[in-house]
Amino acid sequence: MHARPNSAWLLYCTPALAHDEATMKQEFHRIRRLPPYVFAEVNAMKARARANGEDIIDFGMGNPDLPTPQHIVDKMVEAAQDPKTHRYSNSRGIPGLRKALSAYYERRFNVSVDPEHEAIVTLGSKEGLANLSAAITSPGDVILVPNPSYPIHQFGFIIAGAAVRNIPVAPNEAFFQALERAVQHSVPKPTAIVLNYPNNPTAELCDLAFYEQVVDFCRFHEIYILSDLAYSEVYFNDNPPPSILQIQKAWDIAVEFTSMSKTYSMPGWRIGFAAGNRELISALARVKSYLDYGAFTPIQVAAAAALNGPQDCVDEMRATYKERRDVLISGLAAAGWDVPAPPATMFAWAPIPEDMAHLGSLEFSKLLLSEAQVAVAPGVGFGEHGDGFVRIAVVENVHRTRQALRAIKSFMQRYRAGNLDNQDSGRRALGG
Fold first, then answer.
1. Please, what is the Cα angle at 429 between 362 and 338, to 5 degrees?
2. Quick one: CA dihedral 133, 87, 98, 261, positive or negative?
3. How many C-beta neighbours within 10 Å does residue 7 have?
C-alpha cells in the first residue's frame, strides 16, 4: 500500500500542481497551426441526417465506389494463405512491387526508374507526402503550394514547421509570375514547390512544356519539386497526363508520388509510391524506417499483380467515370447550374451559382445537404481561393447521380422562387 500524503505536502504542492494542470491544458504548438477541419461541419450534418433515416447521396469525398478488380483481390487472398507473409514487411516496399512500379513508368512514360534507389512504396501517397515533408523541412522553411489544393499538400509542411506561400493552380503566365515574386520576396528563399496535375480539386491539366519551364526555374533557384500524380490514369481525352520525370533535368530536383487508390479502386488498401531524385527518395526512406515496416505483404503482392497484370480494368474505370461525369454535367446544366466538364480526375470543380455565391462554399454545401440531401465538398476546405466553388465527386452510380440531379433541380427552383422555409437552412440544420 502507498502511504497517504500528509496535508503539509499537499499544501506545498498545490500551486505547482495547479500550474502543471494549466500547462497541460495548453494546445500543442503544431496543433495550433492546424485550423478546424472545414469538412467536419458537413460530415457532422451527414451523420445526423443518416441517423434520422435520410437518404444522403454523397458526392463529398473522393472515395471510389467501384470494387477492386477481382484478380487483384484473388492475388491478395492467395498471398495471405502463406504464413510467411504475415511477418513484418519491408519499409521501402518489397522488391517485386518496386520493380512493378519501374515497369509501369517504362511503359507509360518511357522513363527508366531504378527500383533499388529511385523508388519507394508508401502507405498511400498522402503518407508519402507527409513523411517527405518531415524529412526535408526545417522550422521556418518556405514552401510553395497551390491554392486551392489537396489539404496534405499544405498541411504536411505546416505540421513539419514550414511557412507556406500560396501560388496559383493554373499552369499559365500568372503561375510563373507568382514563382518570381516568391523567390524575390521570401526569406528564406523557398525550399520546395508542390505540383499536382491532374489537379485535385480543380481538374486542371498541364503539358510537358510547362513541366520543362518549371524544372528550369527550380533548378536555377535550387528548389525541390514534389509532384503529385495520383490521377495520372483518370483522364477523358486522347492525351494521357505526362509525368514530370519525363523531363531529364527533373531528376536533379524532383520526386513524384503516385497511388493505387484511384487507378485500381484500392483506396482502403493504402498503397502508393514515390519515384525520382535519389537524395529525396533516400531521405523519405530514412524517415519511414523509423515509422513503419511497410504495408502488409499480401497487399503489396496484389499491388504488383495490378501493375503487371491486364489493364482492362483501368479502361473500364475511366469509361465509368466519364459516363458519370457526362450525366452529372448535363444534368446540372438542365437544373440551371453551369459547371465545366472536367478533362480528368473524378471531380467536377463547380462554381457556386451566381445568385447563391454570397453564401460562400460552406453555407452553400450545408444548404444543399439539408434541402436536397446531396453532400458535396466546400471549396474553402481546399484553401481560401476555393471558396467560390464546391467539389463534386462522381462516386455514385448513374441511377443515384440522376436522383441527386432531380433533388438539386428542385432545390434550386425552390430557392430561386423564395419557397424555402428558411433560406439559411444550412446554418439552422447545425443549430447555429
1. 40
2. negative
3. 8
**Angle, alpha carbons 296-259-377 (nearest 5°):** 115
**What tens digit of pLDDT does each residue of 15-51 get?**
555 455 555 556 777 777 777 667 777 888 888 988 8
The span from the CA of 325 to the CA of 392, in Å, is 10
In whole angstroms, give the CA distance from residue 163 to residue 140. 6
Are the beta carbons of 329 and 389 closer than 8 angstroms?
no
Buried b / exposed e across 29-65, counting CB within 10 Å, b at 16+? eeeeeeeeebbebbeebbeebeeeeeebbbbbbbebe
Nearest-angstrom CA–CA distance, 326 and 307: 28
Q: How far is CA 152 from CA 133, 140, 227, 288, in A?
A: 10, 18, 13, 17
User: Does pTM surpass 0.70?
Assistant: yes
pLDDT, tens digit (0-9, with 9 covering 90-100), for 259-311: 999 999 999 999 999 999 999 999 999 999 999 999 999 999 999 999 999 99
pLDDT per residue as tens digits for the range 373-392: 999 999 999 999 999 999 99
Lookup: cell for 416: 430561386
* Maximum Cα interatomic distance, the chain, rounded to a whole number of Å: 82
Task: Of 195, 229, 231, give the one whose Cα is nearest residue 211.
Answer: 195
d(C-alpha 167, C-alpha 301), whole Å: 39
